[in-house]
Write a structure and sequence with these properties.
The complex is a heterodimer. Chain A is an alpha/beta fold. Chain A has 10 helices and 10 strands. Chain A is globular, with a radius of gyration of 17 Å. The chains are: A alpha/beta, B mainly alpha.
C-alpha cells in the first residue's frame, strides 16, 4: 500500500470535519474522491499534505507516518499537491513558478529534465515561460498548477478540483494529460465534483459525505451504481 | 545649482539610510503582513552597538579608517540580526496563529521594551560618535565638492540594496521568500519551510536596519535612544511611498523621501522638514494607498 489513511479525525476549532476517515491508495493507481461541497474532500488532501494537523488517526506513506510531519517534509518525501483554486504565484513568472515546484530538489540537471517534460505536457506554458502567472487564462493557470506539482518528481500527485471553472474541452485535455502522467508511474489522487469525468479517468473511487467515506469501489462499478448516479451524475432528475 | 546638487546628494545619502530601514519594514510586512513597530528600535540598537564596538575594539586604529568602518558595519549587522531573530522568536512566533491585532500589540510592546532597554543601558543623554572616524576630506566629482562620508554612505547603501535585490530576484532562497510573501500555504506545498523564511527575513531586515543606525551615527555624529522613533517613522513612510511589501519600492521610496526632504529643507524651510515627509505619507495614503510600485492593496492592521 503506497498511501494509507487510518481513522483520521480533523477539527477546525471545535467542529469536527473528518470523523474517522479510512482511505487506501495503491502504487500506480488513479483514485478519485467524490462528494458534495463541505464533505471534507479538500480537508483530507490538506491533512495528507500536512497543512492541516489531525486530532487523531494516522497517515502512512509506505512505512513512514506523515500525520506529524511538517508540510515541507511531506513534499520532500514525494507527495505533491495541486491545491484547490490553483494558488499559483501570480506575480512570479511561469518559469519561476515551476522552479518553486522543484524547491526540494537540488539536482539541477534533473530539475531541467522535469521542466522540459512539463513543457512537453503543456506546450502553452513553454510559450509563456517569461510571463507572470497572473496574466495566464484560467485554463493555463490550472496547467501551470499541475506542471508545478509535477516538478518535484512526486510519487503521488494530489489534485483538488482541477476541472473547476474550466470549459469541458479543456477539462478533457487536462484529464488526458493526467492519464499520461499516471502512465509514467505517478500515482494520482483526484478530488472532483465532476464525478463523471473523474470516474472515467480513475481506477477506483471513494464517495464522501459529511466527513466520512460512504461508498468505495472500482470506478466502473461506481459509474453504474444507482446511488452515485442519482446523487452525483444527475441521473433521474 | 551648486546648492541643488549638494542637497540632492545629501538627500540621496539620507534617503539611502531610509531605504535600508524601510527594507526591514517591507520584507516583514511582505511575509507576515505585520508592521514590525520594533524595527526602528533595532536601528537604534545598531547605532549604539556600533558605538560600543567602535570604542571598545578600536577597530579603526587596527584596520585603518576604511576597513575599520567596514568591519564595524559588518559586526553591527550580525549582532542586530541576532536581536531581530530573537525578537521574532519571543514576540511574534508565539502569536503566529493569533489574530493580527495581537501581533501588532506585541510589536508595539517590543518597541517600548527595546527603546527603554537602550535608555537604561546607555542613559537618556545623546552619545557622540568619534568625529575623526573617516578622514574629513572632500571629493571632487564632476566639479562638485562632496564630503567623503556622504559618498561612502550613499555607495554602501546602494551596494547593499543591489545585493539584496539580486538575492531576492535571482536565487532559489530569494524566490522562496517572494513565494512565501504571496501565499504561505502554497509555499508550504512547494516544500518551502516558511518558518525558516520568516526567520531569514528577521535576520536580513534587522541587519540592514542595524547598519543604517551605524551610518546615522557616522553621518550626523550623535545618537539618542529615541532616534528609532523618528527614523522608523520616516522609513515606514518610505516603505508606504514605494508600496509596502514591495522590495524595490522600499528602495525607491527611501531615496525619494530623502531627496524630497532635503529639497524641502533647502528651498522651503528646514523647520518644515518632518512636516513635509509626513504630508507625503498622508497624500500617498489618500491618493495611491498601494504606493508607487505596489500592486496589492495594503490591508488594515
Amino acid at each position: 500500500m503506497l498511501l494509507q489513511v487510518v481513522d483520521l479525525r480533523v477539527k477546525y476549532g471545535n467542529i469536527e470535519v473528518l470523523h474517522g476517515l479510512n482511505l487506501e491508495v495503491k502504487e500506480g493507481e488513479i483514485v478519485t474522491i467524490l462528494g458534495a461541497n463541505g464533505a471534507g474532500k479538500s480537508t483530507t488532501l490538506l491533512t495528507i499534505s500536512g497543512l492541516v494537523k489531525p486530532v487523531s488517526g494516522a497517515i502512512y506513506f509506505g512505512k513512514t507516518s506523515l500525520h506529524k510531519m511538517p508540510a515541507h517534509r511531506v513534499v520532500e518525501r514525494g507527495i505533491a499537491q495541486v491545491p484547490e483554486g490553483r494558488r499559483i504565484f501570480n506575480t512570479l513568472t511561469v518559469q519561476e513558478n515551476l522552479k518553486l515546484g522543484a524547491f526540494t530538489s537540488s539536482d539541477r540537471a534533473r530539475v531541467n529534465r522535469t521542466m522540459e517534460w512539463a513543457y512537453q505536457l503543456f506546450p502553452v506554458l513553454a510559450e509563456r515561460r517569461q510571463q507572470l502567472g497572473g496574466t495566464l487564462s484560467g485554463g493555463e493557470q490550472q496547467m501551470l498548477a499541475i506542471a508545478r506539482g509535477l516538478m518535484s518528481d512526486p510519487k503521488i500527485l494530489l489534485l483538488d478540483e482541477p476541472s473547476l471553472g474550466l470549459a469541458p474541452l479543456l477539462v478533457r485535455t487536462i484529464f488526458q494529460t493526467l492519464r499520461e502522467v499516471n502512465r509514467t508511474g505517478v500515482t494520482i489522487v483526484l478530488v472532483e465534483q465532476n464525478a463523471k469525468a473523474a470516474l472515467k479517468l480513475a481506477h477506483r473511487g471513494y464517495v464522501m459525505e459529511l466527513g466520512q467515506i460512504v461508498l468505495h469501489g472500482n470506478a466502473a462499478d461506481l459509474l453504474e451504481n444507482p446511488e452515485v448516479q442519482r446523487a452525483y451524475l444527475g441521473a433521474g432528475q | 545649482m551648486e546648492q541643488f546638487f549638494q542637497q540632492l546628494t545629501n538627500g540621496l545619502a539620507v534617503g539611502g539610510i531610509y531605504a535600508l530601514i524601510a527594507l526591514g519594514y517591507t520584507m516583514v510586512y511582505g511575509v507576515l503582513k505585520l508592521i514590525n513597530f520594533a524595527h526602528g528600535d533595532l536601528f537604534t540598537i545598531g547605532a549604539y552597538l556600533g558605538l560600543t564596538l567602535l570604542t571598545s575594539l578600536s577597530l579603526t586604529d587596527r584596520l585603518g579608517p576604511f576597513w575599520g568602518v567596514v568591519a564595524l558595519a559588518a559586526m553591527a549587522m550580525g549582532l542586530v540580526a541576532l536581536v531581530g531573530a530573537l525578537l521574532e522568536r519571543v514576540a511574534y512566533r508565539p502569536l503566529r496563529e493569533s489574530p493580527r491585532l495581537s501581533a501588532v500589540v506585541s510589536a508595539l510592546g517590543a518597541s517600548i521594551f527595546l527603546s527603554n532597554a537602550v535608555m537604561l543601558i546607555y542613559g537618556a543623554r545623546f552619545h557622540v560618535y568619534p568625529q575623526d572616524l573617516l578622514p574629513k576630506i572632500t571629493l571632487d566629482l564632476f566639479g562638485l565638492q562632496l564630503p567623503l562620508v556622504r559618498v561612502l554612505i550613499l555607495a554602501a547603501s546602494l551596494v547593499m540594496m543591489t545585493a539584496l535585490y539580486l538575492f531576492i530576484q535571482k536565487t532559489r532562497i530569494g524566490t522562496a521568500i517572494r513565494a512565501a510573501a504571496i501565499d504561505q500555504g502554497a509555499a508550504r506545498l512547494m516544500g518551502i519551510d516558511v518558518d525558516r523564511v520568516i526567520l531569514l527575513v528577521f535576520l536580513i531586515g534587522p541587519a540592514l536596519g542595524g547598519v543604517a543606525g551605524v551610518m546615522v551615527g557616522i553621518y550626523y555624529g550623535q545618537i539618542n535612544f529615541t532616534m528609532g522613533w523618528t527614523y522608523g517613522l520616516k522609513a515606514f513612510t518610505a516603505a508606504i511611498l514605494g508600496g509596502i511589501g514591495n522590495i524595490p519600492g522600499a528602495m525607491v521610496g527611501g531615496l525619494l523621501l530623502g531627496v524630497i526632504e532635503a529639497m524641502g529643507a533647502a528651498y522651503i524651510s528646514i523647520a518644515w522638514k518632518d512636516a513635509i515627509a509626513f504630508c507625503i505619507l498622508i497624500a500617498i495614503l489618500i491618493v495611491r494607498p498601494t504606493g508607487l510600485l505596489g500592486e496589492r492593496v495594503a490591508e488594515k492592521v
